[in-house]
Design a protein that fits this description.
This protein is α+β, with helices and mostly antiparallel strands. The chain has helices spanning 3-6, 41-46, 72-85, 115-121, 156-161, and strands spanning 17-23, 27-28, 34-35, 38-40, 62-66, 94-97, 105-108, 133-142, 146-155. Helix content is 22%, strand content 28%.
């Protein structure tokens, strides 16, 4: 079963529904770590059966966010669980979107997550957003001892179009 088998059309959703969703409860990896999954609902509906049309598993629960409300009710419990499973070798897997996102805040870092995915998680950009350039700040733990900070300038318009050269993972 795929996402488009459950949500067949945007007409099945309430007005003001967004196109992001999280599988809840999160899936569990073989090592019992939580794996968070989200999908681009609009892409899944445009191409049923494609890679964008996420395959669902037993006990997945689909939660579609509206375009402007806080996602804390869904996201905060996931962030709390991710924090509990973090340690010095595997730091907390959380990303943050700030600035002119419709719903700025912290979100779970997903495997293979891109700048485009993070903007989607944050409800897209407001009309006041500057779509030319953005700044991505990365914090990496080196040898479990120090934190290294990298600042990367992103061509935001290219990243949102899906340009692979601008899709640096958060």
């Amino acid at each position: 079963m795929r996402l488009s088998d459950v949500v067949r059309s945007v007409d099945d959703l309430k007005p003001n529904a967004g196109h992001s969703l999280f599988a809840d409860p999160p899936r569990t990896a073989p090592d019992r770590r939580i794996v968070v999954l989200s999908a681009d609902l609009a892409a899944a509906l445009r191409a049923p059966g494609s890679a964008a049309d996420t395959a669902l598993m037993a006990r997945d629960r689909i939660m579609v966010f509206d375009l402007q409300s806080s996602r804390d009710r869904v996201v905060q419990p996931l962030l709390d669980e991710l924090k509990l499973q973090s340690n010095m070798q595997r730091p907390n897997e959380v990303v943050r979107i700030e600035g002119h996102a419709k719903v700025p805040g912290e979100y779970p870092l997903e495997t293979g997550m891109t700048v485009r995915d993070l903007v989607r998680a944050g409800g897209s950009l407001t009309d006041a957003a500057y779509g030319g350039r953005a700044e991505l700040t990365r914090y990496n733990v080196v040898a479990g001892e120090t934190r290294k900070t990298d600042v990367v300038n992103i061509d935001l318009a290219a990243a949102l179009r899906g340009d692979p050269h601008e899709q640096s993972a958060p």
